[in-house]
């Protein structure tokens, strides 16, 4: 998935919002679709294919708290899709060790023409052409995406 939005210059002020969803941290590999995240957030520096250091803060959903953004770059993940493996590339993803889980921004996907249909405990992802390619399953109040090779809870 190519992300059409480019990150502003490091010195330019931008607002980023993340969701802290649990009092305990999830496993490093857990990835959740999030309607409240302004950007894609990944906890582990090792997930990034490209990386630019950028020390900033983002607002958290928890009152009066912020989360660190240590950098940004490109992250590619392989998911268990509806017709086999699906590779998604998240451009300008933010690196934040403070988020409870890795977060995929539904609003960013929407801007790129993707659609997500929620109901009956699942989130069905559709390509800009209308093909159902990925399903997320309700967990912790969000929708978990199953990454290939990562143990499911």
Written account of the structure:
There is one protein chain. The chain has 153 residues and is mainly beta. It has one domain (17-145): Cathepsin D, subunit A, domain 1, CATH 2.40.70. It is built from 1 helix and 11 strands. The strands form 2 sheets. The chain has a 6-stranded mixed β-sheet. Strands 1-4-5-6-3 form a 5-stranded mixed β-sheet, with no helix packed on it. Residues 1-24 have low confidence and may be disordered. Residues 32-114 form the Retrovirus-related Pol polyprotein from transposon TNT 1-94-like beta-barrel domain. It comes from Lentinula aff. detonsa. This is Retrovirus-related Pol polyprotein from transposon TNT 1-94-like beta-barrel domain-containing protein. Pfam families: Pol_BBD.
């Amino acid at each position: 998935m190519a992300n059409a939005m480019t990150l502003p210059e490091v010195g330019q002020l931008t607002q980023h919002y993340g969701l802290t969803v649990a009092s305990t941290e999830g496993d490093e590999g857990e990835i959740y679709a999030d309607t409240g995240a302004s950007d894609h957030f990944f906890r582990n520096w090792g997930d990034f294919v490209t990386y630019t250091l950028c020390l900033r803060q983002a607002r958290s959903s928890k009152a009066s708290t912020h989360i660190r953004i240590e950098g940004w770059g490109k992250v590619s993940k392989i998911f268990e899709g509806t017709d086999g493996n699906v590779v998604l590339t998240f451009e300008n993803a933010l690196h934040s060790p403070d988020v409870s889980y890795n977060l995929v921004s539904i609003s960013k996907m929407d801007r790129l023409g993707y659609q997500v249909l929620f109901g009956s405990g699942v989130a069905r992802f559709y390509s800009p052409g209308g093909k159902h390619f990925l399903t997320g399953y309700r967990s912790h109040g969000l929708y978990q995406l199953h990454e290939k090779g990562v143990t499911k809870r």
